[in-house]
Specification:
By secondary structure, the chain is α+β, with helices and mostly antiparallel strands. The protein is built from 2 helices and 10 strands, in the order αβαβββββββββ. It has 2 domains: about 30 residues; about 100 residues, Rieske [2Fe-2S] iron-sulphur domain (Rieske Iron-sulfur Protein, 3-layer Sandwich). The strands form 2 sheets. It has a 6-stranded antiparallel beta sheet. Strands 5-6-7-8 form a 4-stranded antiparallel beta sheet, with no helix packed on it. Keywords: 2Fe-2S, Disulfide bond, Iron, Iron-sulfur, Metal-binding, Thylakoid.
């Protein structure tokens, strides 16, 4: 084995041995920081706390029976909350809430969705899935359909 082959094998070995560390690091960062309980008999599931919603202005929880759920305060009535599946119906990017525009905006291709999930600006053609949400005992709950 010459020096070039040896260095190549060392490089491959280094990459292969660091792969589990990279996977573990990515997995822990992408998990929701919110502890989620199973759905109750009435179909509602705790997705976070009112304190977290107040602190961050929104809650993103990826560990519900329906998958990802994004909760924000209703733009015209901050005592109400909105819950949507934040996966853009165009190409699957995660939308975010834009308070100034009172809409969900996709960072990938610019699609915009109204607070009720309906498309207001393409290229997306289908609305976001919405959920019934409420506050109960300082917890934010979403009804999983």
């Amino acid at each position: 084995m010459n020096r070039r082959e040896f260095i190549g094998w060392v490089g491959v070995g280094s990459l292969a041995s660091s792969l589990p560390v990279v996977i573990a690091a990515c997995s822990s960062e992408t998990k929701s920081q919110v502890t989620t309980t199973p759905p109750r008999a009435d179909g509602f599931q705790v997705v976070g706390t009112v304190a977290d919603l107040e602190k961050n202005g929104q809650l993103l929880n990826g560990e519900t029976a329906a998958g990802k759920v994004l909760i924000v305060k209703y733009p015209n009535n901050t005592s109400q909350i909105i819950a949507v599946n934040p996966t853009c119906t165009h190409k699957g990017c995660v939308v975010g809430w834009n308070q100034d525009q009172s809409s969900f905006v996709c960072p990938c291709h610019g699609s915009k969705f109204a607070s009720d999930g309906k498309v207001t600006n393409g290229p997306a053609e289908k609305p976001l899935s919405t959920y019934t949400a409420k506050v109960e005992d300082k917890e934010v709950l979403v009804k999983i359909k």
